[in-house]
Amino acid sequence: MQTEATENLPFAQAMFVVQKKKFKKAVHRNAIRRKMREAYRLNKHMLKDWCDKNNTHVKIVIMYVSTLQVSYSAHQKAIQCILSLITNPQEHEANP
Fold first, then answer.
1. Using alpha carbons only, what angle is made at residue 49 by residues 55 and 94, rounded to the nearest 5 degrees?
2. Which backbone phi and psi does 67 adopt, to 5 degrees?
3. Which of 54, 44, 53 has its CA nearest to residue 12?
4. Sorting pLDDT into bands at 50, 70 and 90, what band is 7?
5. How far out from the chain centre does Cα 25 lie?
6. Whole-angstrom distance, CA of residue 1 vs CA of residue 55
7. Looking at the predicted structure, is the pLDDT value of residue 1 above 50?
8. Which has the higher per-residue pLDDT, 30 or 54?
9. CA atoms of 22 and 10, how far apart (whole Å)
10. SS3 per residue for the chain
């Protein structure tokens, strides 16, 4: 049974981080963050289905660690991979 406090929570909260150390100009950091947020927005349905099925809420921090700016399609592929790691961890376990 959920309490009132947990019923009002969104199924997921996501935070996107781009290091100032790697991208000095805010315009570049913001562009990368916008691409990551848009890729997450379009793919968060994967996470919503998983949260509903497991009756849970998640908080995610996604940190951009590359020193290169990449295309939107690369962000989309990375976000899909991250969300599939969360929703299907057994598929991504290393084989001994």
1. 95
2. -100, 0
3. 44
4. low
5. 23
6. 10
7. no
8. 30
9. 31
10. CCCHHHHCCCCEEEEEEECCCCCCCHHHHHHHHHHHHHHHHHHHHHHHHHHHHHCCCEEEEEEECCCCCCCHHHHHHHHHHHHHHHHCHHHHCCCC
The tens digit of pLDDT for each residue in 43-82 reads 999 898 888 888 888 899 999 999 999 999 999 999 999 9
From residue 46, alpha-carbon distances to 11, 17, 21, 29 in Å are 11, 21, 32, 26
Q: Average the pLDDT over 37-48 and give the result.
A: 92
The total number of residues shown for the chain amounts to 96
- The average confidence (pLDDT) of the chain is 86
| C-alpha pair distances (Å), 74 with each of 8, 65, 77, 85 | 33, 14, 5, 17
